[in-house]
UniProtKB/TrEMBL annotation:
Record's protein name: Tetratricopeptide repeat protein
Provenance organism: Aquirufa rosea
InterPro entries, sorted: TPR-like_helical_dom_sf
Annotated keywords: Signal
Signal peptide: 1-18
SUPFAM superfamilies linked to this entry: HCP-like
Amino acid sequence: MHRIFLFLFLLISASISGQILSDNQAKEWISNGLNHMYNHEFKEATEDFNALKAKYPKHPSSYLLLAMQWEKQYFPLKDHPNQSKAYLAYLERSFELAELAYEKNDNDLEAVFFCISSTGFLAAYEADNQNFMKAVSYTRKSYSFLKIALKNTERQPEFLYSAGIYNYYRIVYPELHPVIKPFMVFFEDGNKRIGLSYLEQSTRKTTFVKNEGRFYLGYVFNKYEGTPARALPLNQALLEDFPNNHLFILQRAELLALTNNFEEGEIYNEKLDKLKIPYYQGAACVFRGIADEIGRKKLAQAEFHYLKALQYPFEERFTKDIRGLAYLGLCRIAYKSGQKAKAKKYLHLAKEFIEYKNSQDEYKRMSQIL
């Protein structure tokens, strides 16, 4: 059930339009703050977002932006309970103000943006913390506004991101998790092709969700389409703009490992190690294992790295599938060394972690030969 609700995190967009952008100073605070936030310059981002909040205390934008920053600065939030309280307070305030604006004018697309965003983040947070009834409640609220967004991508290009995510995940997620199929009757149908098209457009036509569009389009190419090479230029553009962003570095290291670019990949593995964050250190071990196993054919060294990776914790959204890659690697190594029972054990463990299309294909391949 935990992963079922995580896809709701993707059904959000953080977009700002309307009267606040007629204020050049406000636009500067927002633009600079977002750039600082994505580059992990959190002190500077806080100053920009707090300045926006001081001038527009009744507008939902600053509260949502501060929540977004908190999520990146204290990743993962479940490890930072005090910051989690502030995060929730910002989101609740953003939704409260956005809902009031929508009640005054149900044609206010700006209010719709913030209602989708705040409730989407709240649903994902509660799911992360196993509070599924709260997650369902926020999901219902979010979806009521998302339906408006789906019909207004031409009027407001910033909706392209959330519409793209919805159309794509509405199809792919139930395919991966059949248990939720009975519940999908309550949601409008999606279209993977249209979803990918909207996501691609969001990388070109939007302002405030451009970076989210580039990241998640690459994420979709890698995870669900099984084409990590298509994600490389998207990730390259992100790192050129934001070289200090931890998730973008992680994505780069992973994509390079999965496309057999091992020499360049080690540069990013070292960057992950220097962060001193266990989730990323464990991922770097997996990527080194792939390089040793696939690139150098040094199976003993690969096994060492894969086993070392298992000593680190994993994070549900971005490193759980990477943990699955380690188990698949250990399965292959055990099989090649004639340890069939051990290979079966690792294959069984891998099943609990993998959603990647290519990983599932590899799981099926190994299942057939074991």
